[in-house]
Amino acid sequence: MGSSLDRKFNTMKKINIRNDLLNQYEGRCKYCKDKLHHKNATLEHKKAKSKGGGNNIENLAVSCYACNNSKGSLSDGQFENIVRKLNVKKTGYILAYIRRRLNLATIRACKRILEITK
Ligand SMILES: [Zn+2]
Questions:
Q1: Cα 67 from Cα 15, distance rounded (Å)
Q2: CA 32 to centroid of ligand 1, rounded, Å
Q3: How far is CA 65 from CA 5, 94, 112, in A?
Q4: Dist. CA 114 → ligand 1 center (Å)
Q5: Distance 63 CA to ligand 1 centre (A)
Q6: C-alpha 8 to ligand 1 mean position (Å)
């Protein structure tokens, strides 16, 4: 019961933070500047959680799903540089595609190694 209330509270908090950030970023993705709506905006950690970034609002931004998904553990500065250099509107989708292909290739290679070394 308590944990369900906690979850509800956290969800509300998240929605509030996201709305605040949407205003702060003028309704656009921090990286590709695509227009965001309440439904496609994602909360983004400027400094990745895996790199010690926290959930505090100073470390959070709003981004589109593609950018959020592609950024991974890169810092916001590093990812912004990539987006700027490539100057492609949908860099996020391209990066997400490349990452997916790389992941699949890695999994295939690992399976092979396991088979060879059986
Ligand atoms: Zn974006």
A1: 19
A2: 4
A3: 27, 13, 33
A4: 38
A5: 5
A6: 27
CATH number of the domain encompassing residue 34 = 3.30.40
User: Burial code of 78-95, b = ≥16 C-beta within 10 A, e = fewer?
Assistant: ebbeebeeeeeeebbbeb
Report CA(115)–ligand 1 centroid distance (Å).
40
Q: Are 47 and 76 in contact (CB under 8 A)?
A: yes
CB of 45 closer than 8 Å to CB of 7: no
Domain count, the chain: 1
pTM, two decimal places: 0.66
Model confidence pLDDT, tens digit, residues 21-80: 999 999 999 998 889 988 889 999 999 888 899 888 899 999 998 888 888 888 899 888
Cα–Cα dist 68/61, whole Å: 10
Distance, in Å, from the CA atom of 44 to the CA atom of 105, rounded to the nearest integer, reads: 27
Q: Which domain holds residue 101?
A: 2-116
Ligand 1 centroid to residue 49 C-alpha, Å: 19
